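Box 3.1. Reading complex inputs
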Amino acid sequence: MSQVLVKAAGVGKAYPKAYLSGDRLRALARLLVGRRDADAQYVVKDIDLCVRRGESIAVIGQNGAGKSTLLKLITGVLTPTSGQVEVSGSVGALLELGAGFHPEYSGRDNVEMAAALHGLSHDELAARMQQIIEFADIGAYIDEPVKHYSSGMVVRLGFAIIASLKPDLLITDEVLAVGDESFQKKCIRWMEEYLKEGGTLLLVTHSMYHAQKLCRHALWLDHGALMQFGDVFEVSQAYLAWHERKQAASEQRAPDRSGIEFEITDLVVNDCPGNQAVVIDFGGKLVMSSRIRSREGRLPIAMFGIVRADGTPVYGVSTEMDEVGVQRLSDHDFRVEIEFAGLSLLPGSYQVRIHTMDTEGLRLFDTLERGLTVRGESREFGLVRLPHRWNQSSGDHGG
Amino acid sequence: MNKLALATHFIRRELKERYRGSFTGFGWALLQPLLQLAIYAFVFVQIFKARVPGAGAPGYVPFLVVAMWPWIAFSEAIFRSTTAIQDNAALIGKVALPRALLVLAPCAASFFLHGVGFLAILTVLSISGHGIEMIKVPLALLLYVPMFAYAFGICLTLAALQVFVRDLVQIIGQLLTLMMFAAPIFYDRTNLPERFQVLLDLNPFTFYVEGMRNLLLGYGEFPWHGLLIAILVAGLTLAFGLWLFRRLDPHFEDFL
């Protein structure tokens, strides 16, 4: 096993109440006698994390989830209220915009400052200055005060310093979001190179694309607590699905099922009854079967559909469209089953639905849905893998 | 090693920052106390007709200079360091660094600037025949060691407390003025009525004033009994400052 760079055990951080000057005095007195603050607000709690050399972890979560706080605890900017953080090796951190730049100083002065903070001597810095300036690529602005910089330039300079330092552990907080396209690409290329050479990365990002491109693992925080840690694809999909469900939940209204003519009594997905989410592998087989009860004994029309967790329709097909009939079990009970072999849904979270309509297909009577997670690794975009082939110049290498 | 490089960097930055944008640059470091001295000299010598008591006493100007310059270094170090943590809030929130260095920088820079200024003025006074004992200047500089430790201890304490109690810096200005007049800087111990003289010894700065006067002007006795107390006070103050600072350091970010 490779060397452990960060070991966090039960780490928590609470901020004290400090609105009034009286609160401050009380807090000071409490600190001096060494008592804990009773009504402090925890922003991060009970996080266990172990980062080994060569690992790459994306930290994801909604705003205010405690991502930046966690990174600050790891870099040592913040001291944990509970638990411990141990860090070995050099750490390069880009926390928020303009990590520690002094607005009145020129870019060059700030580079010197940052280099001194990272323990670089004057000579070592002199050797790298040119490289830093080239990487930042902000031209003559390097000698202007940082307060005249655009936010993109600040990030460029910050990243250039870190890039030249090549720390054992690189911690970046949402920096890629600020740079322009070409600088983003440059950073990503640099980070990929850095990881290939055995670097270790902790990346806070809201872009699942960046997370999946750069990181092998992901850590999902919500309200300061660890929601999930694991493979970046699984965690990021779970996170996105959670987001989509949250959004959909606020738009959904309760279905009215009182005294309906066609009622769906059951939906079985891949032999899994109940209403738990079903997990299938990318490219696997999906079988949905359902029972429909018809009050009048009339033949229902059944429609199966797949939607993404936020409600975006992916595919829907009905018995009427394909001109197949539902199977009659008794006077009032019907059964219908559909199979998708080699499901081309891309990894992610979806919902499968069944609807029933009257015999004429004019009215929708009932809907039942189940969660579906497609597991697997893919960097393709969108919802489904479309059959495709790459045409080479000679045209005979297709496939 | 690393910390030392970082400390020098911060001190250099502090020195640069203090005179950045001013036309005379470092010249201010000399000019400002000189102007102050000129004002005091005029007020005390021309208006109050101040005389240094005793036979063969030095002139009032060198008498004032040898006490005034160390005081300026001392008081400026304290005044500037008090807000050192608060002023660097942006840095503290984003970069992990030994924060005591942020306090050390303004403290050391003040001592450095006014130490250099002191040497320059002493040289000028000596050349112009004011009877400065230049040979004892290295000894006088040795007195700066406990003085610096004492000042740094106070700086650490105040800088840490200032984070929690923002009114502190307002009070400090007043307290420093009080401390200045409660030390025999503008006057001599013997100017005071007998019953007040003993109160001077409660002010730790009295030792430095009288020590400097003895060494550089050959005026008065060297306060040997005060030396031990001064070193003790300096050591204890520094130890307390470091303890308090370390205790509060992890919580700065929460209150900035």
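In summary: The interface with chain A takes residues 2, 5-6, 9-10, 13, 17, 20, 90-97, 161, 164-167, 244, 247-251, 253-255 of chain B (CB under 8 Å).
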